[in-house]
Design goal:
The complex is a heterodimer.
Chain A (H helix, E strand, L loop, with lengths): L4 H9 L17 E7 L3 H12 L6 E4 L15 E2 L9 H12 L1 H5 L10 E5 L2 H16 L5 E4 H7 L14 E5 L3 E2 L2 H14 L3 E3 L4 E7 L2 E7 L2 E11 L4 H6 L7 E13 L7 E4 L4 E5 L4 E12 L7 H14 L8 E12 L5 E4 L5 E5 L5 H18 L33
Parallel strand pairs in A: 1-2, 1-11, 2-8, 4-13, 11-18
Antiparallel strand pairs in A: 3-7, 4-6, 5-6, 9-10, 10-11, 12-15, 12-16, 13-14, 14-15, 17-18
Chain B lengths: L1 E4 L3 E4 L4 E5 L12 H9 L7 E7 L7 E7 L5 E6 H8 L1
Classes of the chains: A alpha/beta, B alpha+beta.
Subcellular location (chain A): Cytoplasm
Pfam families (chain A): DAO (PF01266)
Protein name (chain A): Sarcosine oxidase subunit beta
Chain lengths: 416, 90
């Protein structure tokens, strides 16, 4: 069933009795050509592109809970491609281009809103760094624009420009960045994958891999053994746990990142603002809530909740840059589990086990990467070669000296 | 979250700096080879459950502490001075 304006009107006139479930609930088959573990944004996107672009058949997505119940349902919905390094920027720009055509591709309203993102600048050194970043973005086909203080005052008059420690001196804007309705991304990909014949199997937890002589033959699950020629893992947050079942130790630590939303307000914030110096970023949802966040809690964790010191730190950041936020009450806060990699960049690669492929290590940049992650992972699964925008995301890049460390922090996952 | 410093007693989490997995206590020999060093520097067990990590009582006595902790419940199970743990290992 295709969604359209005509269909909405027709259903409105007939009591909305004609809507069908957006995807089936099939039982698992004994064998698939390709099994994707993880029914989140990345796993469902992988299934969609495998079926639609790479014309693969006989695919299943295995999800331990309900689809979209992990990090795609727990993030702050921002999309952007403002990266510096060659290994990253083409990939994230590819992702942003896919976001721009996503709703037509999926026939699903994901509320992609290119309201723009602005990184604030407070010093000469920071200006140099951001101008360099902007140039790197432009070289890779993205858009970037340097704004001076007067231009920012015009767009965001309510920011605290004359702060003693971090006066606002300019900003790097990416007008094509913005926000997307995160749950709709999972649902849209699921509906499209399902319509292309992908089996989406929920409430089916993976309990082990069947590996014989270095070849992955399938997975053990709470609903029995499922054979597969190829198994792709896309379970960021729980990668360590899952790949541990295949005997792998990963260059990843799991960390908790908190996010916050205020009560609904009238429109006050036109775009996304990031205050990197104070570890705070904020946007306003279409419902009116201010959606904001900051740093990781900083210690390894699999608990989807954090501690109060970071709540305090994030709120201080908000008060420092946007004092009017102090008048809004906090409505909700939550934590999500991040795969923090050793250099702050992700992995999309084959493993040393034949037929087992890995996608993870997204740090806190997983949401914006969803379309490109799915597309390039599908490319790898279908062709056994990396997509041209994802050649750098190798699991062995530390050994070969090709880490992609945007912040230059070294092997300290909690600092990326 | 409150951590018990073996020297100062139970203190707020804010007083401590988190370093990472206590893998640093098992540093390979300088000539252990590339594979051993790559594994030591980059790969982690990352358990969902009991883990051991290194913290420093930065805003207190500056002691390095090995904390045994549950990553799912955030429960602190045991703390010990890193120096004592290292001595017991050798």
């Amino acid at each position: 069933m295709r969604y359209s304006g005509f269909k909405v009107i027709k259903e409105a006139l007939s009591g909305h009795k004609g809507w069908k479930p957006a995807w089936r609930e099939p039982d698992p088959k004994p064998h698939y050509d390709i099994v994707i573990i993880g029914g989140g944004g990345h796993g469902l996107a992988t299934a969609h592109y495998l079926a639609k672009v790479y014309k693969q058949k006989n695919i299943a997505v295995i999800e331990k809970g309900w689809i979209g119940g992990g990090n795609v349902g727990r993030n702050t919905t921002i999309i952007r491609s403002n990266y510096l390094l060659d290994g990253n920027e083409p990939f994230y720009e590819f992702s942003l281009k896919l976001w721009e055509g996503l709703e037509q591709d999926l026939n699903y309203n994901a509320m992609v809103s290119q309201r723009g993102i602005m990184n604030l600048i407070h010093s000469d050194a920071q200006r140099d760094a951001f101008v360099r970043r902007g140039n790197a973005m432009i070289l890779n086909g993205a858009d970037a624009e340097y704004l001076n203080e007067a231009q920012i005052r015009k767009e965001y008059p309510f920011l605290k420009f004359d702060d003693q420690r971090f006066p606002i001196k300019g900003g790097l804007a990416q007008r094509r960045g913005g926000t997307v309705r995160h749950d709709a991304v999972a649902w849209g990909y699921a509906r499209s994958a399902d319509s292309h014949g992908v089996d989406i199997i929920q409430n089916c937890e993976v309990t082990g891999f069947k590996i014989e002589n270095g070849v992955c033959k399938g997975i053990e699950t709470s609903r029995g053994f499922i054979g597969a020629d190829k198994v792709g893992c896309a379970v960021a947050g729980n990668s360590g746990r899952l790949m541990g079942m295949a005997g792998m130790r990963l260059p990843i630590e799991s960390h908790v990142l908190q996010a916050f939303v205020s009560e609904g307000l009238k429109p006050v914030l036109p775009g996304v603002i990031t205050f990197g110096a104070g570890h705070f970023y904020v946007s306003q949802s279409d419902k009116g809530g201010l959606v904001f966040g900051g740093d990781l809690d900083g210690y390894n964790s699999y608990a989807q909740r954090g501690n109060l010191p970071v709540v305090e730190d994030v709120c201080e950041g908000g008060m420092a840059i946007m004092p009017m936020i102090g008048r809004a009450r906090l409505l909700r806060m939550w934590g999500g589990i991040m795969d923090m990699s050793m250099d702050g960049s992700p992995y999309i690669d084959k493993t040393h086990i034949e037929g087992l492929y890995f996608n993870g290590g997204w740090c806190y940049g997983g949401f914006k990467a969803t379309p490109a992650s799915g597309y390039t992972f599908a490319h790898l699964l279908a062709n056994d070669t990396p997509h041209e925008t994802a050649t750098a995301y190798r699991l062995d890049r530390y050994k070969t000296g090709h880490m992609i460390d945007e912040k230059g922090q070294g092997n300290q996952p909690n600092l990326h | 979250m409150r951590l018990k410093c073996p020297v100062c007693g139970e203190r707020d989490r804010r007083e401590f700096y988190y370093v990472g997995d206590a893998v640093a206590l098992a540093r390979p020999d300088p000539d252990a080879g590339e594979a051993a060093w790559d594994d030591y520097v980059h790969n982690r067990d990352n358990p969902a459950g009991v883990t051991r990590d290194l913290w420093q009582h930065e805003a207190g006595c500056a002691a390095w502490i090995v904390v045994t902790r549950n990553t799912v419940s955030h429960e602190i199970l045991e703390t010990a001075l890193a120096a004592d743990v290292k001595r017991a290992m050798s």
